[in-house]
Amino acid sequence: MLGTIAVILLILWVLGLVSAYTMGGLIHILLVVAIVVILVRVIQGRRL
């Protein structure tokens, strides 16, 4: 489930970069959360 959330957050971040909508701060916070989730999974030894 965490992997799915991380993927969704990354997709939202990419959409935020591509779009002209000005929610850059929120999108980058979502990116940081996604990276943290992925790092925790890697550290725990789970597959992505």
Question: What is this structure's SSE topology?
Answer:
Blueprint: H1 2-18, H2 24-44
3D architecture notes:
It is a single chain. By secondary structure, the protein is mainly α. The chain has one domain. It has two helices and no strands. Helix 1 runs antiparallel to helix 2.
Labels describing this entry:
single chain; 48 residues; mainly alpha
Tally of individual domains? 1
Shape: elongated
**In DSSP terms, counting alpha (H) and pi (I) runs of 4 or more, how many helices?**
2
DSSP strand (E) fraction? under 5%
SSE order: HH
Radius of gyration: 12 Å
Mean pLDDT: 76
- CA(first)-CA(last) distance: 11 Å
Which percent range fits the helix content?
over 70%
What's the number of extended β-strand segments? 0
Largest sheet composition: none
Q: Structural class, from helix and strand content?
A: mainly alpha
Unreliable stretches covering 5 or more consecutive residues: none
Question: What's the short version?
Answer:
The protein is mainly α and about 50 residues long.
